[in-house]
Amino acid sequence: MSVPIKNNISWVGKVDWELRKFHGEEYSTHKGTSYNSYLVREEKTALIETVWAPFAKEYVRNLQKSIDLNTIDYIIANHGEIDHSGALPELMRQIPETPVYCTANAVKSLKGQYHQDWNFKIVKSGDRLNLGDKDLIFIEAPMLHWPDSMFCYLTVDNVLFSTDAFGQHLATERLFNDLVDQSELFQECIKYYANILTPFSSFVDRKIKEFVSMNLPLDMICTSHGVVWRDNPIQIVTKYLEWSANYQENQITIIYDSMWDATRKIAEAIAQGIAEQDGTVLVKIFNIARADKNDIITEVFKSKAILVGSPTINKGILSAVAGILEEIRGLGFKNKKAAAFGAYGWSGESVRMITERLKEGGFTLVNDGLKLLWSPDNEGLAACKAFGNNFAREAVFASNQ
Ligand code: FEO
Fold first, then answer.
1. Ligand 1 near 164 CB (within 6 A)
2. CA 339, CA 307: separation in Å to the nearest integer?
3. Does an H or E element contain 21, and which?
4. What's the rounded mean pLDDT across residues 354-370?
5. Which of 24, 94, 224, 350 has its CA 20 to 30 Å from the CA of residue 33?
6. Ligand 1 and 148: CB distance under 6 A
């Protein structure tokens, strides 16, 4: 399938309606995804990105319906990750001499994955590739989100090909941002940012400012996943600037797992205490063992503060809680408050352990946490509410500093 994008640009990618897990089993894709690939047919023809390996044969077959492969002058590999480069081996078997334009780091990642010595042409920021009346300008974008990532910009048409940046995992036949459900679109965008780009926020901010300083007009952003931003493409750039600046909303998220409901009761009583103290704050509660971890990470991203709870088991914490804490640590959230809670019967290490993990993750701890022996009675529930009252006050205080 080929979809006209603008003038001589067409989409030749693959919509993956079935995908429910990405990055192995790490990232949930409730709405599927797409691997966007673009053909630019000017005096010279450039192919920008390919698709994920399982669709390599299908992709090349479809591409052949649009173009004689031997007339492709340049292949642009904006990013070496396999969801965009996976069809390169199949394609390069057919046109082995075609030059592959990419960053020096992409040569390493492509060679490292495919063990092929293709005709690589290393480019740097500001380099141009002439296609006739238009040029492709290359803009290195390291750590957005791999060291090899790069954007390219097509002059005259004013189109930015942004690889993963500004993308989202959303399968759609409608392709353009103004044609899809907006709440679904932005939910997938913020989930993508929260789960993948959070650790690289300083790079996001710098790269956007660098692009703005180049004074290049922007009519369209062609990402490598999801929609093409043709209607007011600046809107997603503006969102990225907000999200990269230690983003938070007036929200507190409570995450826990429970064995016999004691920690669940504590979580819910703390939530009541927060609501009593601050009726404006949105409180969300998740049992991590029963909810999607990437959705929870998105809620953590939106929160000004979080509470994490686990009962003590085997002098430790429940595995689902340990898992989300590791995910949270790796993402390196900034400017967020936190505290721990949990029930225990004997030794009671969980609250201290969670507190330590949250500190490692860069959270500011409001207090030493709340641990309750066995299951809370009325007095215990009152203590949980009081804890929630205090936590809400601290979170507000923190967000006003
Ligand atoms: Fe969509 Fe970083 O690959």
1. yes
2. 5
3. strand 21-22
4. 97
5. 94
6. no
